[in-house]
Amino acid sequence: MAPFARRRTRVVLGITVLLVVLAPLALWLRSSSLVRVETVTVKGIEGPQAEQIRRALVAEGMDMTTFNVRENALLGAVSQYPVVRSLRTETDFPHGLRIVINAYEPVAALRTSGGNATAVAGDGTLLRGATTRDLPIVGVRSTPGGSRLARGETLGAVRLLGAAPRALRARIDRVYRGPRGLAATVAGGPKLYFGGAAQLKAKWGAAAAVLAHRTSRGASYVDLRVPERPVAGGLQPRPAYTEPQL
């Protein structure tokens, strides 16, 4: 056998022996107490369910090691909380685990005539158990079943709110469908007529611009159906100017 061939054979054998020795060691280390999680930090969640979610994730995380973090198991531990959209993990060797939650943001409260309310995200995901305080109201005949809204007028109203700038959405009392299509009422302000569900971002941008302009004060409605040409209507006529008497 040529010297080069013998050398290559020895290298291959050496690597094989090394893998045979290290593989069991790596498997042992993945579950070893030397790298067992002892500290779990949870970020990215607020609201009435936050404490329960943190407790569930901490309990699940403490059963892992920093060499073997199972994100599917962590998600399974909080599967009963639909506000958790996804999560990611970071390890701090040897004993630290940081969990960052990507949570759904409630944009509306689906309210029945009986007063029952369910929070919902902008894509129609029902966030049962999440707070509905200070959320715009979308009226429904009955509390929806399942985990998401089906297609229909209710989903259209929710998507309208999901497209709204957060600061402006906080000023909305209610969204409904009327003779002019989708409409919203502003707290202490005018009604906003959106018409159809197209160009929602542009329509909200037009609404923000009109509401910020002093000439729209006193308007009873803002027609945004053509966002390039929004119209503020229902303005009270200004009192006629009369020259002062000498």
UniProtKB/TrEMBL annotation:
PANTHER family: CELL DIVISION PROTEIN DIVIB, CELL DIVISION PROTEIN FTSQ
Gene3D superfamilies: membrane protein fhac (3.10.20.310)
Residue ranges constituting the POTRA domain according to the UniProt record: 36-101
GO biological-process terms attached to the record: cell division
Protein name: POTRA domain-containing protein
Organism: uncultured Solirubrobacteraceae bacterium
InterPro entries xref list: FtsQ_DivIB, POTRA_FtsQ_type
GO cellular component: plasma membrane
UniProt keyword annotations, A-Z: Cell cycle, Cell division, Cell membrane, Membrane, Transmembrane, Transmembrane helix
Domain of life where this protein originates: Bacteria
Keyword Cell membrane: yes
Cross-referenced Pfam families: POTRA_1
The keyword Cell division belongs to this UniProt entry's keyword annotation: yes
